[in-house]
Amino acid sequence: MHLKKIRESLLKWYHQNRRDLPWRQTADPYAIWVSEIMLQQTQVTTVIPYFHKFLREFPDIFSLAGADLQRVLKIWEGMGYYARARNLHRASLEIVEHHQGNIPSSFEQLKNLPGTGEYIAAAVASIAFHKPHPVVDGNVKRVLSRLFLIDTPVNHGSAGKIFHQHALRFVDTQSEDHQGIFNQAIMELGALVCKPRNTDCPSCPVISYCQAFHQSVVDQFPKRVKKKKIPVYHVSAAVLRKNGRILITQRKPEGHLGGLWEFPGGKVRENETAEQACIREIKEEVNLDVAVDSFLTRIKHAYTHFKIVMDIFNCTFVSGYLKLNGPVDYRWVTVKQLDLYPFPGADRKFMHLIA
């Protein structure tokens, strides 16, 4: 395999075809770090406005470290995978305390930051500090699997190590372009040309070296282990009113949607209606008796490992003293005040109907 020629062809293509993305217009390690955290599980087009908004609100590591976590979550609201925001905030505190506010340049130090891991550590070390570390994301795995006909399923437990070994072959400390540029080039090829479907092989700068193309099996790579069917849960939630205000509760700071606010509710049990579940869940979560006034709407929402169908009801407080069992905090707020709190995507789908 002509590794040097592949590298040269790919770099030449990248310099001519790369997208003009905001994080490519800066050498600031902080901005690059933030972008890589955002890009880990979110598409580029979605990230761009959030990246600008985040840096306007938190232009440097000190402003992020000094911010309240609820404000960070609010700025992140809508992008999902909120553990990223919580870990970004935690990491900023560590960087200020232990690194004098400087993003670490060492791969090992970066890897040990909350929520960073090997991929982001390699990306930041190579792009911001020109260190010779290859990156392996979904785009890179797809390109490498087709170039080298790698049979290992990309979602198998052993894939990371195997694809990393292949990526290491392209590290060249003597190249005029540092490793960070090559990392961006191979990821860009996967994003624009060597796509999961509808590949643009005629535009590929390394087509002459691609084994999958020459064997007419591009559509058979990368290999994947078939995933289990995603479960769907029926849940119920309440827009609960008392004296002109609405009850919202806060989830525990750790775990799924940690730290976000939501309308009280939960799973509908077998042989239970959504209305009955709504009344029961409120009693269990906040110790209040309520009456269901009307059906507001039904929404559907998908998470990584499951989906929900949520029925939402307008409810009125009847009796009881509020006592939390599960949530860690609560507020009685006006409709206008709802905008001050970070909510999950599922809740935001129906909030515009609340009047």
Description:
The longest helix has 16 residues, at about 85-100. Helices cover about 40% and strands about 15% of the residues. It is elongated, with a radius of gyration of 24 Å. The mean pLDDT is about 95. The chain has helices at about 5-15, 30-40, 45-55, 60-65, 70-75, 85-100, 105-110, 115-130, 140-150, 160-170, 180-190, 210-215, 275-285, 345-350; strands at about 230-240, 245-250, 260, 265, 290-300, 305-320, 330-335. The chain is of the alpha+beta class and about 350 residues long. It has two domains: about 5-220, Hypothetical protein, domain 2 (Endonuclease III, domain 1); about 235-355, Alpha-Beta Complex (Nucleoside Triphosphate Pyrophosphohydrolase). Strands 1, 2, 3, 4, 5, 6 and 7 form a seven-stranded mixed sheet that branches. It has 14 helices and seven strands.
Do you know the CATH topology of the largest domain? Endonuclease III, domain 1
Backbone CA Rg: 24 Å
CATH class of the largest domain: Mainly Alpha
Give the biggest beta sheet: 7 strands, mixed
Average pLDDT: 94
Assembly state here?
single chain
What separation lies between the terminal Cα atoms? 64 Å
Summarize the helices and strands and which ones pair or pack.
Blueprint: H1 3-17, H2 29-39, H3 44-57, H4 61-65, H5 69-76, H6 83-98, H7 107-111, H8 117-129, H9 138-148, H10 159-168, H11 179-192, H12 211-214, E1 232-242, E2 245-250, E3 261-262, E4 265-267, H13 274-286, E5 289-302, E6 307-319, E7 329-333, H14 345-348
Parallel strand pairs: 1-6
Antiparallel strand pairs: 1-2, 1-4, 2-3, 2-7, 5-6
